[in-house]
Design a protein that fits this description.
The complex is a heterotrimer.
Chain A: H1 6-16, H2 22-34, H3 36-52, H4 63-73, H5 85-95, H6 112-118, E1 125-126, E2 132-133, H7 159-162, H8 167-184, H9 186-192
Chain B: H1 2-9, H2 21-31, H3 35-53, H4 60-77, H5 87-106, H6 125-128, H7 141-154, H8 157-167, H9 173-180, H10 184-206
Helix pairs in contact in B: 2-3, 3-4, 3-5, 4-5, 7-10, 8-10, 9-10
Chain C: E1 9-18, E2 21-32, E3 35-42, E4 49-53, E5 56-61, E6 66-71, H1 86-89, E7 93-103, E8 106-115, E9 122-128, E10 134-140, E11 146-158, E12 176-178, E13 195-197, E14 205-212, E15 221-227, E16 232-237, E17 249-253, E18 256-263, E19 266-272, H2 276-284, E20 286-288
Parallel strand pairs in C: 6-12
Antiparallel strand pairs in C: 1-2, 1-11, 2-3, 3-4, 4-5, 5-6, 7-8, 8-9, 9-10, 10-11, 13-20, 14-15, 15-16, 16-19, 17-18, 18-19
The chains are: A mainly alpha, B mainly alpha, C mainly beta.
């Protein structure tokens, strides 16, 4: 994609004020579909306006938009024409590619459950660098037994997206999380400044006394 | 809705541009199943619609729910939008109906809301959202507002005036041109330059 | 005396950002005489709710009418091998205090943890000055890009939280409950692991090793955990009888990287919150002892 040039910024500005001709608008809307930088700029322009009018949502200016997006993500797709694959892939990073990862940062020990929820909207595609970034799976067969995997069906997953389906990897990750979480974030972080972490009885007492570290 | 409503809801009032063509281009895409176009409409109107809804539904978190529902209704109803009125007018009606319906339904559980139509001008309505446990953003609104306020203050006067007339007074470019006694093209350029200057400071905050 | 994150009573909202997506979660954390309970509610996207009561974790997925249940043992014995943080960190990370800042309306001390080589990620932490609670954390990759971020947007640290506050908001009657396999070792078989990584990036040491069934496994899986005190890499070695499902190569998920390959007829996969080359180095060097 070519770098965005100023004329487009100017058009965006007029667009948000509804001061573009219909033709220009149609052109810009098509461009906005693929130009994420332009979209982001448009969002910022809208935030500027909202802030000036005292309409900025607290504490997150985009909370509504996120919620609406999420609600639409959960909406049945049948209502819409099929999306071209390229666009679906482009949208994936924005909406669907959720990292399967325990939420350790909030004092939450990573859990199977947390990892599993992370998978909900995690549908896959092949990244630009060729690495697979994928699992989107399903609880297969009967739902009345132990799971073969913690992967929960992603509503939007198409057969194509399920192709890779490394459920195995997901299960690894869940298993890994049990160890990683204790070390990786909360535990470490809080230990770093000499806080005992009750979930880590085996971990030694603090750790690093930052008072003795060089201060920048 | 004051002047904002007048301009947005009545595109005929605008002699040039401001004809709702941005919205029209977007809604056409939505009708073709383009959800990202709808997203742009959400971005554009979420603040206004929420403010509108909060005149009816005082509880901030309920107002958020109602606003969300209004947008979803609009999305579902998009194929039936014929362009007889401006998109915003149409959305505005949907939002008001959604809010009213909500109040009727909520009448069965009165403790959950507080209806006070006598007092629609609640300056602190939006700041009530502060209390919401619906959070976040990397940059928070407080920081954003602060940055924007500073950036506005630093703008050359003609840029500042242009963008304030647009964003706060809701004037069309034509009206601003008359007010500032300059060509419409200059207005467009000033507003754009103002946004660019603010955006330069806002951008890093939103990364 | 500072208080531990687990020991506090608090409620707040945090945002988890990775791969350009944002997820907002509300957390209520209650500690009554050492009994910890927690409720996490996803505020956007599909409805999800997690209830943790000491060692039991329920994940409620109303849209799917599913509850995932995990009995979470307070650290299993293997975890006693977890490494210490002190001297061990120093060769691999440079830790520095930076400026103070405000996060979630609280004053925070910024701490930068800079890796000394390219085998691990860096971290920036905003630690609450009063409680040391991490108000904001960033994971930074080898190119300086923030690959993952958690930010509290509001946080109330309180003296007491009502027990009801931890109750699920979702009624789970009629939901399907799932329990994962609980055992980490297989009945009748010695839980010993015979594989080790021959080549490890500096500072990584074996901190746990186990052999047993994991979800979806028909045959026991060997699981090695390597850590440099901060970053953790798991290595999974499948039984030769297990049908290979993963293709060889990298899988990337935000800050988590995995590398999988076949070694002596076994599927070997390394996974962790480390750069790609770290998982590859470790996985590729695996040898049977």
């Amino acid at each position: 994609m070519t770098a965005m040039t100023e004329p487009v910024h100017d058009q965006l500005s007029a667009f948000i004020d509804d001061e573009l001709s219909e033709e220009e608008s149609a052109f810009l809307v098509r461009r906005l579909e693929r130009d994420t930088a332009a979209r982001e700029r448009l969002i910022r322009y809208s935030i500027i306006g909202a802030a000036l009018r005292g309409e900025l949502l607290q504490p997150d200016p985009l909370i509504l938009r996120r919620r609406i997006q999420a609600a639409l993500d959960g909406a049945p797709k049948a209502a819409l024409p099929a999306q071209p694959a390229a666009r679906a892939a482009r949208l994936a990073p924005l909406r669907n590619r959720r990292l399967v990862r325990p939420l350790a940062g909030a004092g939450i020990a990573a859990t199977v459950a947390v990892a599993a929820i992370g998978l909900l909207r995690y549908t896959g595609d092949t990244g630009a660098d060729g690495t697979v970034t994928a699992p989107a799976g399903a609880l297969t067969a009967s739902q009345w037994r132990e799971p073969e995997s913690y992967v929960v069906p992603a509503q939007d997953a198409t057969p194509r997206e399920r192709r890779e389906l490394p459920i195995r990897l997901t299960n690894y990750l869940v298993q890994h999380g049990q160890y990683a979480s204790h070390l990786n974030r909360t535990a470490v972080h809080s230990n770093v400044i000499s806080v005992n972490h009750t979930e880590m009885p085996a971990a030694p007492e603090p750790v690093i006394d930052l008072e003795e570290e060089p201060v920048q | 809705m004051g002047s904002t409503k007048k301009h947005l809801a009545d595109p005929g009032a605008r002699p040039q541009g401001g004809s709702g063509s941005s919205d029209l281009a977007l809604i056409k895409r939505v009708q073709q199943g383009d959800r990202s176009a709808f997203d742009l409409l959400v971005i554009k109107y979420q603040h206004k619609i929420l403010k509108l809804v909060m005149r009816y539904v005082r509880d901030p978190s309920e107002a958020l729910d109602v606003t969300q529902e209004a947008f979803l209704k609009a999305y579902r109803a998009a194929p039936s939008f014929r362009g007889d009125s401006a998109f915003y007018t149409w959305l505005y009606r949907i939002a008001i109906n959604t809010a009213k319906n909500y109040l009727v339904a909520a009448g069965r559980r009165p403790s959950h809301f507080n209806l006070d139509l006598q007092d629609p001008e609640q300056q602190d309505l939006l700041s009530d959202l502060r209390e919401l446990d619906t959070p976040e953003g990397i940059a928070q609104s407080d920081d954003i507002r602060e940055v924007i306020t500073k950036a506005i203050a630093d703008l050359p006067e003609e840029l500042r005036t242009a963008i304030l007339l647009r964003e706060i007074e809701g004037m069309s470019y034509e009206e601003i041109a008359q007010t500032m006694e300059c060509p419409v093209g200059t207005v467009r350029s000033r507003i754009f330059r103002a946004r660019e200057a603010i955006d330069k400071r806002l951008g890093p905050l939103l990364q | 005396m500072t208080r531990a994150v687990e020991e506090l009573n608090y409620q707040g909202t945090f945002v988890h950002v990775r791969d350009g997506t944002t997820e907002t979660l509300q957390i209520i954390h209650r500690n009554e005489g050492g009994r910890v309970a927690e409720r996490i509610l996803a505020l956007d996207g599909a409805m999800r709710e997690i209830i943790r009561r000491e060692d039991e974790v329920q994940c409620i997925l109303p849209d799917h009418r599913i509850v995932l249940l995990e009995q979470r043992k307070e650290l299993n014995p293997l975890a006693s091998a977890l490494p210490s943080y002190d001297a061990e960190l120093e060769p691999n990370y440079e830790i520095a205090l930076q400026a103070t800042a405000r996060v979630a309306k609280r004053r925070a001390q910024v701490v930068a943890i800079q890796p000394r080589d390219e085998f691990r990620y860096g971290y920036r932490l905003w630690l609450d000055e009063e409680t040391a609670m991490p108000l904001k954390t960033q994971v930074v990759d080898e190119r300086g890009t923030i690959v993952e971020q958690i930010v509290f947007t509001n946080l109330d640290i309180v003296d007491f939280i009502r027990p009801e506050a931890i109750e699920p908001t979702t009624k789970t009657e009629g939901f399907t409950w799932y329990r994962p396999p609980t055992s980490t070792s297989v009945e009748g078989e010695p839980a010993e692991v015979s594989w080790r990584a021959a080549q490890l990036p500096g500072g990584f040491r074996l901190s746990a090793a186990t052999r047993g069934l994991i979800a979806g496994s028909e045959y026991p899986v060997e699981h090695l955990v390597y850590s440099d005190g901060l970053a953790t890499v798991s290595v999974f070695i499948e039984d030769p009888k297990t049908k290979a499902e993963l293709t060889e190569g990298f899988v990337k998920m935000g800050s988590t990287n995995a590398f999988s390959l076949m070694l002596r007829g076994r599927r070997v996969t390394a996974i962790g919150e480390v750069p790609q080359q770290t998982v590859r180095t470790i996985a590729s060097s695996l040898t049977a002892e």
